[in-house]
Amino acid sequence: MLISLAPMIIFTGIILNQFSASHHEKIYAHLAELVLKHKQNIDGFLEERIHNIRFLVDTMEFDHIGENDDIAEKLMRLQSAYGTVFVDLGVINEKGQQVAYAGPFKLEKAQYADADWFKKARENLYFTSDVFLGLRGSPHFIIAVQKTWHGQKWIIRATIDFLSFNRLVEKVRIGETGFAYILNREGQFQTKPIFDFTPTLDIYDRYFFTLKRIGKDVEIQERPDGAGVMSIYVSALLKGGDWLLVYKQASSDAFSDLRNAQTGAVIFILLGGIIIVCLAVWMSNNVVNRIAKADSEKEIMNQQVIETGKLASVGELAAGIAHEINNPVAIMVEEAGWLQDLMEDGAFDNEEDIKEFERALNQIRIQGRRCKEITHKLLSFARKTDSRIEDFEISPLIEEMVALASQRAKFSNIELNTHLDPKLPAISASQSELQQVLLNLINNALDAMDKTGGVLDIIGRQEDESIVIDVADNGPGIPKANLARIFDPFFTTKPVGSGTGLGLSICYGIIHKMGGEITVKSTMDVGTTFSIRIPIQTDDPSEGVVHVTGNED
Q1: 8 Å CB contact between 361 and 353
Q2: CA–CA separation, 109 vs 106, rounded Å?
Q3: Could you say which architecture CATH assigns to the domain 60-164?
Q4: What residue ranges of the chain have pLDDT lower than 50?
């Protein structure tokens, strides 16, 4: 699952990161272009109004400016050409007295000498004021043009319709939260924003300073607004740097497409992850079931191999068993012949004959029991296939295996001895499997000493929490080159047809399964000792380590 999910998550994360960066650049570029376009439109609007008034001023005569209706005619011409953008028109002398006026308000003879816009207009040929309420009590701003006529300065001013100007900014709308507004250097609104909020003057001061210092047309920043909502601010200078056009939009709104893409990617990862997990679980269960089935078949095969090995061991014992059975059978045959002779002679009259009959019959019965015991041991071992774990004393089991092998040992001129600790504790294991291990080791030792004879010692003792069984012979030993391979399946040094090479491999597997270990030490022409170490408590067998060591002194 990790191998499947990790590349998908990493790849999706990389793609999303690249898409996010690309989308941010795209949004920023779009907003910068939008604000720059409206900056040009607004600046163009203001410059065009100034040009309108300049053209008007060039056609005016100021000798009798307050004595005719020439100013009203000029206002009508402006309104006819440009609609309601121009609200009124006035001419002011250098003392601030309005000497001519045309418009809807009663501003004839109005005095502007103390007005800020008038003072600034006297210092510039062309001047656009900030938005203010003025004498009329409604928001407006003034475009003024200065004209010198016969040594006297005149100010021609026109009031621009605030609503017409405001619509230029209101059109800057994107999404649900995007809107624009204009501020002057004092942080006062020059348009009416569609959302009520109070601008933070120090931040906008930095916008004025940054744009002017670096000479950029547009500045883009992303920061929290007054309510803590992360927002995008795009700003540009207007009116020669006196005004600031600001576009504001919540980041979540501006990047809604990105958020949708990210949500889709997360859903895709989750669905993909669920599918991968389900497939992984299904495939794992399938593999586990197949492995379990294979293990079951392997276990059955192992049992069959063990039973085959057991039958092979029985076959190797057959010669000694046959020799042992021959003796009681010969006695039984002899006694039966003697009874037959007595019966042919008619020996039924005296007491001595009857006693002789009883003795012969008793001898036949004793020898029959002896044969029965011998065959019973052999058949009991050959037929025992129950590998269930049970508690049992190990000493009787060793004695039984020694008894099975004793006749073969005698037949091969081998002295078979047991040295068992009388206080060996019980162990929890499979009796039949442990019988197989002991018989394999005993038969291997008998095979090694079959031609030379020798001594085979079976030693049982307790060490710490384990029982150790040594099968030690004084045979020819095992070459050092073969020691590392003797537990390998199908490895054998016996002639072809005399061994399968599975005996020691079976022993290794059985002891390993019991949580024990089997080791071997061998010296050429001195002998070989196989040591089996079995934990006393083997209800929960853990894997043991098999050590194979050699010693050539």
Answers
A1: no
A2: 9
A3: 2-Layer Sandwich (3.30)
A4: 538-553
Task: Return the pLDDT at 542.
Answer: 41
pLDDT at 381: 59
Tokens linked to 297: 């078949």
Extract the tokens encoding 168: 């230029």
**Contact (Cβ atoms closer than 8 angstroms) between residue 329 and residue 367:** yes
Q: Does domain 2-45+172-254 have CATH number 3.30.450?
A: yes
- What confidence score (pLDDT) does residue 552 get? 36
pLDDT at position 548 is: 39
Phi, then psi, of 472 in degrees rounded to 5: -115, 130
Angstrom distance (rounded) from CA 252 to CA 200: 21
Give the Cα separation of 18 and 360 in Å (integer).
107
pLDDT for position 316 = 58
Q: State the Cα–Cα distance between residues 150 and 168, nearest whole angstrom.
A: 39
- Which amino acid is it at 519? T
pLDDT at site 30: 92
> In the chain, where are the structural domains located?
2-45+172-254, 60-164, 281-384, 386-553
Q: Which CATH number is 386-553's, of 3.30.565.10, 3.40.390.10, 3.40.50.300, 3.40.50.2300?
A: 3.30.565.10
Q: Which amino acid is at 392?
A: F
